[in-house]
Amino acid sequence: MVAANWPGVDPEWPREIEVASTSAADAPGTVRRWHLLDNGPQLSRRGLAPAGTLLCVHGNPTWSYLWRTLLAAGSDPARPWRVVAVDQLDMGYSERTGTFRRLADRINDLGDLTDALGLDGPVVTVGHDWGGVISLGWALAHPQQLAAVVLTNTAVHQPAGQAIPPALRLALHPAVHKWGTTTSDAFLRVTHSLAHPPLPADVRSAYMAPYRGADRRAGVGNFVADIPVDASHPSFPALSGVAEGLRGLKVPALMLWGPRDPIFSDRYLKDLINRLPHAEVHRFEGAGHLVAEDRDIATPVFQWLAGNVEGVSEGESTKPVATPAGGQEQDAAQPAPGEFRPLWHPLQHQASGPAGADTAVVEMTPNGTASRSLSWRQLDRNILDLAAGLKNAGVESGSRVSLMVPPGVDLTVALYACLRLNAVVVVADAGLGTRGLSRAVKGATPDFLIGIDKALAAASMLGWPGQRISVRDLPATRRRLLGAETSLDTLARSGAGRGPGHSTDMVDPDAPAAVLFTSGSTGPAKGVLYTHRKLAAMRDTVAETFGIRPGARLVAGFAPFALLGPALGAVSVTPAMDVTAPRTLTASALADAAAAIDATVVFASPAALRNVLATQDGLSSAGQKALERVDLLLSAGAPVPEPLLANVQRLLPRASLHTPYGMTEALPVTDISLEEIQTADADAAAGTSAGADAVAGAGNGVCVGRPVHGAQVAIVPLAPDGTAPGADPVTEAGIAGEILVCAPHVKETYDRLWLVQRESASLPGWHRTGDVGHFDAEGRLWVEGRLAHVVTGPDGVVTPVGAEQAIERLEGVRLAAITGVGPAGTQAVVAVVETSPPVRKAGPAEPQLAGRVRKAALEAGVKVSAVLVVPAQPTDIRHNAKIDRTRLSRWASRVLAGGRPGKP
Which CATH number does the domain housing residue 48 bear? Predict the structure, then answer.
């Protein structure tokens, strides 16, 4: 046992201790030899008093080496913590006892060890794999010493009727078990192969070191054999005791999870969340079973300790358990509780009033005719009927229901029925693609999945969680094939006339209501959790900002607005289009939808508007007249160029054109009209929008106007390295920085993304948007791009949007992207251009185009080092407009290094 051979382990940490055993597995008076990694003596030698002790327990077939990063972080003189990482008996370098130790024995063993060490409070248990169960068993048995618990991929309960994970089933098979776990080292190698990225050779060797030889692996086999597969197993009572005991555990809890785990999947995380609803949770997308190897867990653990445990004395109550959402505190901008009106209040008002018989929602067929419509009274009745049916099917307060239904009557009824039951609706775009959508659904772990046949087929094939409900009644064979237990039609019939069984106005305003997923254009799509209060505030903000009152008639070319329409009391229709691909909206489809309801309001993304203009020659005279009656057009989701709006204005001559700026986390934030854009552009051209000493160039970016009703906006100035580290928001003109927003409709939290939420709310009361911008002298906000896309070159910080817009004004250029290539601080600025007509192959631009691009960018204040062309920019699927600059940066780096261009 030579610690020098263990990468990342300080030679002072390993130690051995003799412990008197009280386990039923041992004879009275037995003494066992334990090996552990312990930085306590090192801290004492340095004269450092630890804030507490982390008691770290590994699973099977790892050992204390798993926790070396926590030991290193705990040894920091600035914030010392004692870290005791144990090798369980028969594991790692601890004694091989020759006895079969069950779960209850191992929990008892850990208590013997901590007694021998004299550990008192505050103690934070940290567990992984089956070490999670054992650490929790210790925690429940030592409430006076316990300060908090930290869990990484583990489980405490096996649902009845559900099989254990396939990998464990194989390891337990009589024909495989002994050979796979003991005779050979196959179980170890398979476990080590679960790391993402693969473990370095020296780290893999360190994990293997204590288990070389079959006689050293008996504990590995026994651990597997002790898995309680059902109630008949000897360790089942001990496991159940831990599982049920968690429901009364009120200390702070943190769960750090690797979703790519074939053993402890998200269903086990969901079970833990249900037992510890106050826990903070962070899922590291892309990480797997060995999450402590795949990601830096030390930093978040010690950040979390600083806010939840440090400063707690022995026996003292820890920080009070917070609401699971843990979002921003209510501010003066939010309505008082007595003023709260649930999202569906205007819908009910319309249904019970004189407008009850008027049309509320319309569906369009692909050929442009109305296929189905409901009045307000019918819509409200259908919602109540379905709510009753869903309740009978098991949907209750807090149930998560994934909705995979295209915008229209069915989706509207299902959404509001779920909300009235206090269920949490989960909405993720099919446009995320199979992989992205699957990741989102599995991460949200819905209890129910309501979907069209295509969605149910994907659920069956990809193993999505949740009881499946089809939209229509299905033949028995197809129902079995898709795994559908019932249908919306059946549930609505079963609930007809009965109502949901309770007043649907009795809703907790601060209870979770929806998890809405972002577009995934800047990384994996994130779930954004909204409470009922936040959704209602979003409705009120939209209504007040744009003057949308009950009776308005809305064409929604963007799914969220189709769902918001009934909440505004507005008649709503979705045009015939693929809502997952906005650029499929044609002028005729838009006009047909507008004519169907005599529309006054239209919402469409920039990509949709481009195609509407491109197809306007196919408009009939009736279609043109329908569009001419529109009073208001809203377009958002990506920057909207002024020339595009000017062309749209000719198509909708009466409409006031607005381009609200916002995001899934806060929709909307600011608003601006076409006339205001033209004024701002004129001011910028005249050099009057910012002071002479401004950091941001006048007009550098897209002018998005002023804050909407009830919102405040500020800036955190950029540092030379492209970050925004400050803590003092400013509103002065000309200072470029990260955009902050404070409003009653800002999201509550990110769903199961504690680290992301912590960063986004690091300035109390503000949401950090991740966008970069500045104010001009008139108080208007200009957006310059994403913080993650800022280029840091030798001449300073470069934000992308201003130069991109200058390039896009060139003839023959459709879309442009500015990205950086090379190390931070010395990055070269590269322009990637999509031409019109498109080039056949991606690669360096021809000299004439490159020269024009460089000149246009330079006039916008950006010096471009290289110009590349692509047939099509890689854009997000939700808006077909947000360019994936990170992906382009990797591609451009390869091309400029002499690699084959290929597809970006």
Answer: 3.40.50.1820
